[in-house]
Amino acid sequence: MALVVQKYGGSSVANAESIKRVAKRIAESRRAGNDVVVVVSAMGDTTDELIDLAQQITPLPPQREMDILLTAGERISMSLLAMAITNLGVKAKSFTGQQAGVITDAVHGKARIVDVVPHRIRETLEKGQVAIVAGFQGVTKNTNDVTTLGRGGSDTTAVALAAGLGADVCEIYTDVDGVFTADPRIVPAARKIDRITYEEMLEMAASGAKVLALRCVEYGRRYGVPIHVRSSFASREGTLVTANSHVTHTVHDDLHVPVAVWDRIPGTLTVPDNHEAATEETAMEDPIISGVAHDRSEAKITVVGVPDVPGVAARIFEVVATSGVNIDMIVQNVSAARTGLTDISFTLPEGDAKAASSALSAVKDELRYDSLQIDDQIGKLSLVGAGMKSHPGISAKLFGALRDADINIEMISTSEIRISVVTREDALDDAVRAVHSAFELDGDGEAVVYAGTGR
Amino acid sequence: MALVVQKYGGSSVANAESIKRVAKRIAESRRAGNDVVVVVSAMGDTTDELIDLAQQITPLPPQREMDILLTAGERISMSLLAMAITNLGVKAKSFTGQQAGVITDAVHGKARIVDVVPHRIRETLEKGQVAIVAGFQGVTKNTNDVTTLGRGGSDTTAVALAAGLGADVCEIYTDVDGVFTADPRIVPAARKIDRITYEEMLEMAASGAKVLALRCVEYGRRYGVPIHVRSSFASREGTLVTANSHVTHTVHDDLHVPVAVWDRIPGTLTVPDNHEAATEETAMEDPIISGVAHDRSEAKITVVGVPDVPGVAARIFEVVATSGVNIDMIVQNVSAARTGLTDISFTLPEGDAKAASSALSAVKDELRYDSLQIDDQIGKLSLVGAGMKSHPGISAKLFGALRDADINIEMISTSEIRISVVTREDALDDAVRAVHSAFELDGDGEAVVYAGTGR
């Protein structure tokens, strides 16, 4: 008996068969007594097909019209899903972003949710019906214009609705089992993370982990919505993202928490060695490291031979900011060989490199630098874990692991719970594997316990 | 300088190329100084594809969800059309039925428009922009639910908007040149009708002419909206549907009326023989007959051997009406051979024949008839013309033409401006040709004048 918001992505509703499969899962959750709100994305490749249609018309479609076009995708998936659920004997109604009360600002293509007024969703739940809501879309308050939320939009719709409705949990269904300690395609021994804090998940997402959108996690943290990332193709537990990785949340029945897992294995009363200790000294349960994220989508720009006088760095980043580019890491090296000159490097999304370099070229005379170097062959590795702030020597261990693997570090940046390094792009996979091993994140069969529960 | 509502059907916007072509036409009309509102249907086969998707999910989709699903089609076409127009340097914005203020009742799948509140369309026109409106859809007043208008929905949206905005003309663009004196596939000599009254057009539409939906013509007549049916593939005049077939309406420049046509042919000042006479005696200009419509979609039910006592016919049609079936023509014959008994025949849509015969079978004991005959091999021919009410001998001429062509008449019904006869279905084409010839409707090259203007 809980209020559950479930979100299904495009790959979970790619065709009539998968829509029926998802409908069955939703109907089961409703029949188990839960109040169920479902947020759904457009079917499979629909969005890409619509973008392609627009490209056939014009290379520069007005963003307002793009939003109207793209929202047709969710309209199709949400009504089909409502039909499929109704066909199973469970009443369901679909709602557009506007009908669901998802109010946004007027920035077409990447609108931000400013309010959620889900009157109609509440009414629908009170009648015992399932409410299906179009993800990725909203409506402007004053002009009643259709907007889309941009990347990660449907995840954000789901968390925002969960917050607005005071839901017990927001389940994000995807095509992987949850959040992993590293990308399993690179590190086959990567383990699914059972629980992770918002802060760690934010660092993971910001560092390139694609399973949850950054803004969705931010929204969840701000409103304290537990987010459960799990597979729509299996019934086992995924990863629970909450404020505290070791507190047992009272969430709905389908959501058993790790501590309770042992109770569910028939014929065993074995309690893990550290169980008692964990109860007394909860910090011990905190994993020091959550995982290793990586990102190949950035480029590095180096401004070579800048006069080493006050205000130059400020001016450089002012110019870059004015061109609408967000930068990530910054490193400044004093060049010993050329007195009075320095090199400033920074990383930024690859797609923004051209805009940033044009902006800097335009002020070359003013800044009096020697040259610009653009390097799009870099990779970034990030080690994330709330535990690292109280454990010294983490960075030494990280750098040691990379040295042992013969991998050169080009840039370093750190936060309270993250260390990121930039390497050559072709060394990135080796780097991820080396670090994953060094911090003993490699799987030890624990995942089998989950698979073995058969849920 | 006029306010023009243009409606483009699915075949006119079937792909990116045709959307660009239509956009060009709209941009030209705007550049000529007109205020332009465009109503658009879904692209080509989109609606059928969406229906097919729903059928893959469930054989009986809830109608509310079907409406949400189907309205995705217009969302796609309207946004693409707005993009295409904008790409030509003319500002355009698209609006859903809800945004355009098309308010309907709550009968999903065949909603009726109850109000049009086009504030946003007016604002858009005042800014000099083209407003694109999704056809076929509206929104319920209180619950804000999406509805569709059913068959002929986009035509009706266009005429309703034209009425709500006080437009000078509503142009219905289609894949034929206008309304013809008969179906050109049956009568190759059929001529395009230049002007026709609402009443005649209503009779034509009700008698099987498919070019304009009945409800759209009804709406046009009620609010006095001139409807111009024309081809989206050519620029020549189509058919103008108005209150009076010989009054010159002050419509926009693109809409020259027949009287003015002669002025436009360079090098000729020839005035047709009856021009002067027509000015003094306008009734002379009224064509006696507008055209010949036909319909193969009906069936005939005969209730054989009904006791010829008062109240029996009333009871029969009461029973049929209760089964939700609309009947068309009724004939009662007194059977001389069997005193006290009579046969009652009526026509109805073929698809309703089963429901009506079941309803009648259920009361066989009460009505004491001998048997039911169902005949779906009938055809209906209708001769329509406002002139016929003042011209005696029209029906005699019609029956004579059919007799000369050796075609048997099974049923007859008449209105002030229409005579309909039922024949064998396989004799229908011959019947249409014979009547078309007898009333001298066959083309005499007049259509060439229009083609020759090259507009």
Automatic annotation (TrEMBL), chains A, B:
Protein EC: 2.7.2.4
Binding site for substrate: T47, E74
One GO CC term on file: cytosol
Cross-referenced SUPFAM superfamilies: ACT-like (SSF55021), Carbamate kinase-like (SSF53633)
Record Gene3D superfamilies: Acetylglutamate kinase-like, VC0802-like
Any Pfam family: AA_kinase
Catalytic activity, as annotated: L-aspartate + ATP = 4-phospho-L-aspartate + ADP
Domain of life: Bacteria
Molecular function as annotated in GO: aspartate kinase activity; ATP binding
Record key words, sorted: Amino-acid biosynthesis, ATP-binding, Diaminopimelate biosynthesis, Kinase, Lysine biosynthesis, Nucleotide-binding, Transferase
InterPro entries, per the entry: AceGlu_kinase-like_sf (IPR036393), ACT-like_dom_sf (IPR045865), ACT_Aspartokinase (IPR054352), ACT_dom (IPR002912), AKii-LysC-BS (IPR041740), Asp/Glu/Uridylate_kinase (IPR001048), Asp_kin_monofn (IPR005260), Asp_kinase (IPR001341)
Keyword Disulfide bond belongs to the record: no
Domain ACT, chain residue ranges per copy: 301-377, 383-455
Protein's pathway: Amino-acid biosynthesis; L-lysine biosynthesis via DAP pathway; (S)-tetrahydrodipicolinate from L-aspartate: step 1/4; Amino-acid biosynthesis; L-methionine biosynthesis via de novo pathway; L-homoserine from L-aspartate: step 1/3; Amino-acid biosynthesis; L-threonine biosynthesis; L-threonine from L-aspartate: step 1/5
Biological process according to GO: diaminopimelate biosynthetic process; homoserine biosynthetic process; lysine biosynthetic process via diaminopimelate
Record-listed ATP binding positions: K7, Y8, G9, G10, T174, D175, R185, K210, V211
PROSITE patterns assigned to the protein according to its UniProt record, in alphabetical order: ACT, ASPARTOKINASE
Family to which the UniProt record says this protein belongs: Belongs to the aspartokinase family.
Name of the protein this chain belongs to: Aspartokinase
Organism of provenance: Cellulosimicrobium arenosum
